[in-house]
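User: Reviewer 2 asked us to show a designed sequence for the structure in our supplementary figure. I'm pasting the C-alpha cells here. Could you produce the per-position amino acids so we can include them in the response letter?
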C-alpha cells in the first residue's frame, strides 16, 4: 500500500499567512488558504493531503492505494 503525505490542518492554521503561502503552492495567498483550511476543518477534516488523492478517509487523510506488485 502507498499513502500520500499530509499536513494536520491545525498545524497549518498555526503558521503565518506568509509561511502558508511559502509551504503550499495553491493558492499562493495565505489569507485565502487559511479560509479554505478553516472551511475544511468545519467540514470535519483534520488533514490536508499533499497532491491529488482519490481515496481519502472522512478526516481528509489518504486511505491508501494498492500497488501492482504488492504481495497479498
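Assistant: Here is a per-position design you can include in the supplement:
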Amino acid at each position: 500500500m502507498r499513502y500520500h503525505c499530509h499536513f494536520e490542518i491545525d498545524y497549518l492554521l498555526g503558521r503565518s499567512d506568509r509561511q502558508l503561502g511559502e509551504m503550499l503552492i495553491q493558492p499562493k495567498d495565505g489569507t485565502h488558504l487559511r479560509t479554505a483550511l478553516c472551511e475544511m476543518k468545519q467540514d470535519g477534516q483534520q488533514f490536508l493531503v499533499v497532491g491529488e488523492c482519490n481515496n481519502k478517509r472522512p478526516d481528509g487523510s489518504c486511505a491508501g492505494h494498492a500497488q501492482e506488485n504488492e504481495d497479498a
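For the response letter, you might also mention the following. The beta strands are 6-8, 47-49. The CA atoms of residues 56 and 72 lie 22 Å apart.
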